[in-house]
Design a protein that fits this description.
The chain has 390 residues and is mainly α. The chain is built from 16 helices and four strands.
Length: 390
Amino acid sequence: MAPQGPQAPLEFGGPLGAAAMLLLLPATMFHLLLAARSEPARLLGPPPDLPGLAALWSPRALLLLLTWLGLQAALYLLPARKVAEGLELKDKSRLRYPINGFQALVLTALLVGLGVSVGLPLGALSEMLLPLAFAATLSTFFFSLLLYIKAQVAPASALAPGGNSGNPIYDFFLGRELNPRIGSFDFKYFCELRPGLIGWVLINLALLLQETELRGSPSLAMGLVNGFQLLYVGDALWHEEAVLTTMDITHDGFGFMLVFGDLAWVPFTYSLQAQFLLHHPQPLGWPMASVICLINGLETIPTATGRRLLVSGWWGMVRHPNYLGDLIMALAWSLPCGVSHLLPYFYLLYFTVLLVHREARDERQCLQKYGRAWHEYCQRVPYRILPYVY
């Protein structure tokens, strides 16, 4: 076993919190999947019917999932338009990353379009969300176990700051190794944006096609949700290089938290609005749709990638305006679902909690990095995310 590096403060309530999250994250995902298709569509309270194992386990779903991961891995290995270097590691080296995520999105779209043109029943994917999510959950537990075992022989310089506590449950959840690789294939970087994000918009498209089959044409609300979220995914993959400076890549180990988040949580919970609209169609007129489009456009609040502390523009009003933009965007994604149910607003509620937690982590990192300058910045810009509120 590799010697442990400096231990970071425990997060998520330590080992007990990590153990709870191992159960709560999959349980929440399945609750949302079941609630979206149920008649009451309640966010709070149990769904009317709980599925048996026969409704969850499907060898065909597992085969589809593995085929999807294999396809995205093959696209990852194709020649890239650019190869970027990551930040300097503990041993002073820099890893190299292919910047070809948008290329993978375009090639996937071409393959899916070709398949649909020759009769591929993509809309039927909407009926397989439960077994696909179950297969993804099992796969993420197994993959996380392999990563944990691999990290036992990794050098100390390869370990993440927070995943080497010595507690197996906590380290399994958070991830021990910072950048697990086989050769040049970086598992964390691959999973961060590729299978989950592209899978998310593929599920959205399948739900739109299923709605078209059921009702003759896609609804305006479903079209807006698909368009907004495709734009988000396309933008993320076009600017894929920016992920190399995020906390996920530079600080967090690759364990169950990120594995499950990337491969299961993102595609099956971020598509919640489209799932809801398939089973609970909502009337939406063009005037309201125009207002929602305007709200979604406000998401283009700029972010900073340099090392200077900015005190002008949005950055002079709140310390994390990019997070404010994310929350505005989340609201725009939910509004096409109307206001009769709380369920489609789960993403907004969840993202608020996530960003407040992430902002607290950012504050600690910035304090360590900038020292006194950060204290002065906080005095000049007292609000963290929402002006005059928080």
